[in-house]
UniProtKB/TrEMBL annotation:
Protein name (Swiss-Prot/TrEMBL): Phosphate-selective porin O and P
Keyword terms of this UniProt record: Signal
InterPro entries in the record: Porin_dom_sf
Signal peptide feature range: 1-21
Amino acid sequence: MRLKLLSFLAIAFFSYANCCAQIDPTLLKRLPKDTVQNILNMDALYNRPALNISKTPISIGGYLEMNWQKLTTDGVSEGHQFQARRLSIFMSSAISKRVKFLSEIEFEDGGKEIAIEFASVDIEFDPLINLRAGIILNPIGSFNQNHDGPKWEFTDRPISSTQMLPATFSNAGAGLFGKKYTKNWMFGYEAYLSGSFDNSIIENTENKTFLPAAKNNPERFEEINSGEPLFTGKIALRNNKIGELGISYMGGIYNKFQDDGIIIDKKRHVAVFALDFNTTLPKIKTFITTEFAWIYVDVPETYSQQFGNKQKGGFIDIVQPILRRSILGWEKATLNVACRLEYVDWNVGKFKETGTNIGEDLWSIMPAISFRPSSQTVIRLNYRYLKQRDIFSNPPSVTDGFNLGISTYF
């Protein structure tokens, strides 16, 4: 599968390069990301810069993430590390009037992992009623859809979005979405039925309830373990003067409860609720974004208490521009200071025997400095300080260190 995908991309790239070589360079133009102010987090898939060949319906773009880091955990370090985090390629096409195709193919860790993160056809019947079908990004919270590296001041993705929620969780599915504008107010919704989780969320190498384990199962793109689809829904409300609030839900049956018509287990549900909010303080231009989620999993009673049936966690990012001016020939360069606060509890509850709290949690603080020669490129220096406790709430392990990275659209 990987070889076929690489072959396809190579053919597409060289065909594209050959096409460009035969076209007057003046016909190539950069399409800016959507400049319409009435946008929501759900518009992140459209709100990306791309390169368009004049008089063709196809555009192409992408982004790159690369960083250096040196981290220490309880005095032990693996030393200096250079990491080719990811290369994402966007391809889209305006097929016909109100019919669009969008896709994102991501190469992680230097090509170690290759995935089609998003590939869908959008058909607009009305601004409030659009059909989307294909490989969709389940809109739980805001980060899952709005995850492009150049948009963030931090080299690492939020822990709650990657190690509690399954970041960039995509499945084969279909559904409806739409938006409505009224003066300063905007309303948007999304509702999809798609592939789902499987037993790996409680049967994994982490030895705990771990939703991201489901991403390792490529079979979810062609069959549903339980035979019943996952539902994901989100509503968002935005006021241009206040900010955007999103409320989302994702839930369904994850286990294989019957085989050839024979009931072998009861239906076991997984449910995720998430709240997200972002705003910009008008006078000082401080940007604040936050997301918090709660997870409920029906874990079999035969499992030990290290497999939690409740989880919670989230993050808050605060970004403050301190300098906006022409720097070294970049006319609209920006220098920011930022900070991310994070918390995750993988096992909410108390031990049945003792009544004491179950551990398995962490908190982290990450101050940062970032420089943007343009809005599409960011150079960022982060320092992480993280404390994590095991299930028995023993004294926490401490991880700290620096990350320096660059991320850019192209």
